[in-house]
Amino acid sequence: MKYVRGVLIFVNIICLLGLLGCYASYYLNPFDYWYVSLLGLGYFIWVALNIALIVTWLFIKWKYSLVSLAVLVIGFSYHVKMVAINVNPGIKNHQETIKVISYNIQLFKYYDWKKNESERDKILHFISTTDADIYCFQEYFQMRDEQFSTTTKLKKILPDHLMHFEAGVVKYENQEYGLATYSKYPIVNMGYITIDSTKNKTNLVIYSDVLIKSDTIRIYNVHLASNHLNTNEVDSMIPTSEKSFSFVKKWMKKLKNGYKRRYDQINILAEHLNSCPYPCIIAGDFNDVPVSYTYRKINAKYKDAFIESGSGIGATYNGNLPLLRIDYIFHSAYFGCNRFKVHPLSITDHYPISAELYIRR
């Protein structure tokens, strides 16, 4: 029993450090402490392990369970950012709502050569059935010669919406990759923020000032740096083999690069937000979890629509790494939120999200 206690204490210390690391990743600069930020990816694992240890200690030496319990209680403010608890998230406010959809459409699946048109049409069908006022699309793709028609088809689906598109990358003088915002409201001003210092501007932020009755609202459409992890590689990894260690080494390098790039990008965006004269809606693919520096830089001044009126874990990443919420709709306190939804559409590697906002009067 003494040996078992020793092992459990050692495991408990590791699990406590892992959970405390998740809390710390919310504040620490990921450019210098990227390895701490990694712990946030396994937040739910660390929580589950600590709960399991609390239960285990109750049968062995109950006083030891108090340490993990205390750390879990201390982290309450982080837990409520990871899990939304709204009793009636679907109840609407009587005021007029502004429905916003954010969706990383993964280039309309253009590079899925065998079925790219059918996958594109599924995405377009989803858009045609949602009836949103504002759409923020990341990884938007269009061809100037319309060989693979996207914008023309989308404008037919959304004839009452105005389009703001910015290309981060242009290939073969024909293929354009970037961000697109479609607005039912008049767009009175538009611009973009260069946040990517690499040659190919695969990451970008665009903003569109829209007029809603007598109010000017700024819509930020955001796509921050990805970790570029190919989750299909996980299935081919053989435990303890050289191949596995090679994959882990490559993943760590990608993660490190992703965190450092997002650190620079989110600081540029936060600075631009500080100078914005209008109420804001900030939507997009942030490629980071709620217990992160990236999230804190925006959530410090803007409300998370999911926490306001969503429910559950709200995972938005459709891949082999489960339970990751990396797509967000933030908004100024000028707005309230009636309803937030993650749409279970498994076409791209992200699920579309929507929020129904209203202007507080």
Please provide a written account of the structure.
The structure is a single chain. The protein has 2 domains: 2-82, no CATH class; 98-359, Endonuclease/exonuclease/phosphatase (Deoxyribonuclease I, Chain A, 4-Layer Sandwich). It is globular, with a radius of gyration of 22 Å. The model has no long low-confidence stretch (mean pLDDT 91). It contains 11 helices and 12 strands. Helices cover 36% and strands 25% of the residues. It has helices at 2-25, 34-37, 43-58, 65-74, 76-82, 116-128, 151-157, 232-235, 242-274, 293-299, 305-309; strands spanning 98-104, 134-143, 162-171, 175-183, 187-193, 204-212, 215-223, 280-285, 303-304, 327-331, 335-342, 353-359. Strand 3 (162-171) and strand 4 (175-183) form a beta hairpin. 40% of the residues are buried.
Short key terms for the protein model shown above:
361 residues, alpha+beta, Deoxyribonuclease I, Chain A, 2 domains, six-stranded mixed beta sheet, 11 helices, 12 strands, 36% helix
| Helix and strand run | HHHHHEHEHEEEEEHHEHEHEEE
- Name the shape in a single word: globular
Per DSSP E runs of 2 or more residues, the count of β-strands stands at: 12
The largest sheet, given as strand count, sense and whether it forms a barrel, is:
6 strands, mixed
The tally of structural domains comes to 2
Report how far apart the termini are. 64 Å
Helix fraction by DSSP (H/I, runs of at least 4): 25-40%
Q: Which segments are poorly predicted (pLDDT under 50) over 5 or more consecutive residues?
A: none
Mean pLDDT across all amino acids: 91
Here the CATH topology of the largest domain equals Deoxyribonuclease I, Chain A
The portion of residues forming beta strands comes to 15-25%
CATH architecture of the largest domain: 4-Layer Sandwich
Number of helices: 11
Radius of gyration: 22 Å
CATH class descriptor name of the largest domain? Alpha Beta
CATH superfamily of the largest domain: Endonuclease/exonuclease/phosphatase
Helical/strand content category:
alpha+beta
Q: What is the topology, as strand order, of the major beta sheet?
A: 3-4-2-1-12-11
